Amino acid sequence: MASYSASGTVSVRPYVTVDNPATPISALASDSVWTARQILVVATCFILNMLDGMDVLILSYIAPALSSDWQVSPESLGVVFSAGLAGMAAGGLLIAPLADRFGRRKLILASLVMMAAAMFSSGIATSIGELIASRFIVGIGIGTVLASMAALTAEYAPTKHRTFAVGFLQAGYPVGATLTGFVVASHLSEHGWQAMLLAAAALCAIAIPIVWLVLPESIAFLLSRQPKGALQKANRLLASIGQPQLDALPPQDVSETRHAGVRGLLTEGRARSTILLWLAITFSFMTLYFVISWIPKLAVEAGLPAKDAIYAGAIYNIGAFIGTSSIGLVAMHFDLRRLILVYMALAAVALTVFGSVAMPLAATLGTAFLIGVFVQGGFNGCYPLAASLYPPEARGTGIGWAMGVGRIGAVIGPMLGGVLLAAKVSLPVIFGIFAVPVVLAGICVSLIRLPKAA
Fold first, then answer.
1. What is the pTM of this model?
2. Cα dihedral 145/331/15/43 (nearest 10)
3. CB 312 within 8 A of CB 332
4. Phi, psi at residue 450, to the nearest 5°?
5. Contact by Cβ (8 Å): 61, 310
6. Dihedral, CA atoms, 273, 81, 438, 277, nearest 10 degrees?
7. Are the beta carbons of 440 and 285 closer than 8 angstroms?
């Protein structure tokens, strides 16, 4: 049974043994040297996360044009936003756990196919109903990919850099969102919002053969589930990351099978920490998706021209990249849970200032940048935290369920924002309301207990 401590830095036990086949899969001590294969895995997942950021955030960038073109009310627009987020919840809860049974690679490829098809459908939609349905399916694919990529990155990164690698992976999301924002701002008026969605669908389709060629399966999955040809595949991958070969597959651990799946999230002393993690992510998502869904429109409400408002959303995502990358680096030396608490407290301050203080353009954009640093940086710290909390046989399920349950907050946030805007609630009150959940998220994270490093 795993032992837990109330304090300490994040550490995940490695995932494969080479010295003794009878040794549990989680017992090998890997080094801190990056190989070309490990870099390729993290880089590929980073690019996939850029696509996820594009697919999610593109809707917020085209929202003003869509609203004007179809005369969509804020309430209906909130439903469109929330449809994608509800799909992400379904993907995380129902589909992502299948990665622990069928493999990370297969699920990522299937999800990319789904995302490309649904993005194309959203680009040719002729009604709000069709758009909502398409966005829901896009969300299913994104929710599945996010959990599967985080698990795969955690399993391939060197132990010393695992927290950084999983955190850095999440930085691809705001990078994709930022680039999308600048592209949309430059071409939306000329080509229209439908063309933006069709271009996003094309990029997803292009990624499918690339992922097929370069993304490997999880070694932990091969050795624990032992599909046909597992030993040969595992040995090729072990060689590619500089690890010795196996003479035979390790015996399958009955306890690992028993504690896989959702049951594994609530056993071996993890129940309290799992519930706290779910609460933290739910609170984080409420504010995060309120901000990323509405910040361009809210910037217009604050007095910015429409084009500058789109840039505000893009600059927010530049801050998100900085925040996500920085928290992963600093967490190599300090307790990740305390860092998340600090980030969330500063996020509440930045949100309050953005909504309450009249500022010139430069200061408004600067505050949007800080919101990105602290809201997205603090939230994305939850991915390596979840990877640290769960063993390999339950990691895909653990990350998927954490993000899936948390999507309750992601659905509530944009819808609540739409209701408050429609009710003409003042911006200071709106931002004050959404400053509260991030503080609660930080408190929940600070109370999580992690397994001691092996």
1. 0.72
2. 40
3. no
4. -105, 155
5. yes
6. 0
7. no
Of 255, 277, 364, 278, residue with least CA distance to 315: 364
pLDDT tens for each residue of 167-189: 788 788 878 877 888 888 888 88
Stated as kind and residue range, the H or E segment containing 450 is strand 450-451
* Residue 380 contacts residue 288 (beta carbons within 8 Å): no
Task: Kindly state the helix (H) or strand (E) to which residue 420 belongs, with its residue range.
Answer: helix 392-422
Cα dihedral 229→231→236→238 (10° resolution): 150
- Please state the rounded mean pLDDT for residues 138-163: 84
Of 402, 392, 404, 380, nearest to 451 by C-alpha is 392
Number of Cβ atoms within 10 Å of the Cβ of 69:
12
Distance CA 2, CA 339 (A): 24
Q: Which two tokens stand for residue 168?
A: 């850095």
Q: What would the two tokens of residue 185 be?
A: 């701002």
Cα dist from 391 to 24, 132, 148, 329, 447, whole Å: 11, 36, 14, 23, 20
SS3 state of residue 4: strand
Distance CA 77, CA 170 (A): 26
Average model confidence (pLDDT) across the chain: 81
Question: Which position has the token pair 């400053």?
Answer: 435
- Calpha distance 284→323 (Å, rounded): 15
Kindly state the helix (H) or strand (E) to which residue 5 belongs, with its residue range: strand 4-5
Cβ neighbours for 425, distance < 8 A, ≥ 6 positions apart: none
Return phi, psi of residue 223, to 5°: -85, -25
Nearest 10 degrees: Cα torsion 36, 156, 206, 312: -100
Residue 133: what pLDDT?
93
* 3-state DSSP assignment of residue 74: helix
Calpha distance 265→152 (Å, rounded): 18
Q: What is the DSSP string of 203-257?
A: HHHHHHHHHHHHPPPPHHHHHHH--TTHHHHHHHHHHHTT-PPPSSPPPP-HHHH
Q: Decide if 332 contacts 161 (C-beta within 8 A).
A: yes
Range of weakest confidence among 22-36, 64-78, 344-358: 22-36
Q: Mark 413-443 as b/e (b = at least 16 C-beta within 10 Å).
A: bbbbbbebbeeeeeeeebbebbbebbbbbbb
Phi–psi pair at 242, nearest 5 degrees:
75, 25
Q: What separation in angstroms does the CA of 110 have from each of 91, 97, 156, 428?
A: 12, 14, 21, 43
User: What is the DSSP code (8-state) at residue 94?
Assistant: I
